[in-house]
Amino acid sequence: MTERRYMRVRADMPPGHVRTPSYLRGKVGWVERTLGPFPNPEQLAYGRNATPLPLMRIRFSMAEVWGNATDAPDDTIDAEIYSHWLEPAEAPHAP
Amino acid sequence: MPHDHHDHMSPSGHPYRPDDDHPLTYWQQMEIAVRELLIEKGVTTAQEISAQIDAMDARNPAQGAAVVARAWTDPAFRADLLQDASAATREMGFDIGPMRLIALENTADEHNVVVCTLCSCYPRNLLGLPPDWYKSRAYRSRTVKEPRKVLAEFGVTLPDTTTVRVHDSTADMRYVVIPARPAGTEGWSADALAALVTRDSMIGTGLPKSPDTA
Fold it and tell me: What is the pTM of this model?
């Protein structure tokens, strides 16, 4: 198994059409696969020339997203996050 | 006698259903305005719009069931499907338009379930329109937080040894679950197997029908 590449989702709350779910902002997950490049929906939604960006499928543990509120910490959530929402991160500490 | 209140009863003796008239919402008005402008400016025609609606209505979960059944019976196709589900379904002859599809395979160790927390992204170009509950706030908010409880309400109870993988369909990709092939179907044809594959089993909220009940 290759080493996991961890990423943190930016914790910003900008206005407008954003396809990064707010419940995942600030959370750390690992790259499940890389897709795209696809046009940035934040520009596309307003009829602007949209920059092609890599789209990453990031896998988050339930423990990372919901903390103690989950009863299945090792279950996972995968979401597609555009690369400009991601920054490299350390592996999260076990809760 | 039951026909006394003529104001409220139809001639057949049943109450009139109230009209469901209500003002157009902002987005309904917007859709009508944009559609009429596109037609007036010659970008599209009413006939083309009707044809697209007909094409979407003709898509249904049986298309997905055929894909799943082939994956169960054709190892080379299964490998192609997991590698590039869009190409594999097009190669089977399905017109999925520009849809980018990922197939997620359920095994004894992993159970996949699909949700779109932001709106209602669904592999419509293969499975047709989504069920109403898929678009509900309850399904969208609870599936990412307590998927095992949601699945149990759909009648799917998973052992602790099975990892649940929730897929939030947030951007460009659409997802179809390849459920695990039911035991007791050895030697079945793809056509017979397809009859076991339900819509919900391809969302991950159900399992295929048992061969005993099919």
Answer: 0.90
